[in-house]
Amino acid sequence: MRPLRPKPLSAAGRERHTALVDGYQHATDSDRFKVLHDAAEILLDELSERCLVERRETKEPFGLDDALVRTVRLIPRSPAGAPLAIHFTGPGLILRLGRWWEESLPTCTCDTCAEDPRGLVERLRAHAAALIEGGLWERVRRGVGGSWFETRLIGTGVSEGHEGPLSAAGARDARRGGFAAAVQWAPWQVRA
């Protein structure tokens, strides 16, 4: 595949353009995803007010360079409810639900993929709604090559699953925690 050649840009085009590095396109206007941070703040505030949860904010190492990122966790007061965590990474978010569900919003910040920030906000809200309604289940599955986690999220407008390998220690820990059989997380309790 031939590398793409940049076209000359007008003054207005210089603000939003695609940089080429080693023949691949990269994001140069990641500011368009800042709306995700605002939407996540609003969602966390709404859920903290509406549901019986404990809110914890920390700065944690995250990513390859172990940069500190702000992380907010909502932990239901009932242990039967799955926790929600949002990592406020560079231009986007990492959404964690329960023990293994993890999703990057956006999945790619490059100008070519051009993920719509409004669609990502809707996805964030739909996933959170499915979680608090009790739509998340998770389990550990043993296989010939080792153990795997399986997770499924089902709710209004959401029906997705993820799976991935677990280390031997991670699998033992998960089975001790009751994940050998499928765990259906309970709905979050709502304030009276």
TrEMBL record:
Cross-referenced Pfam families: DUF6226
Lineage top rank: taxon: Bacteria
InterPro entries in the record: DUF6226 (IPR045773)
Protein name as catalogued: Uncharacterized protein
Organism of origin: Actinoplanes lutulentus
Lineage, top ranks: Bacteria, Bacillati, Actinomycetota, Actinomycetes, Micromonosporales
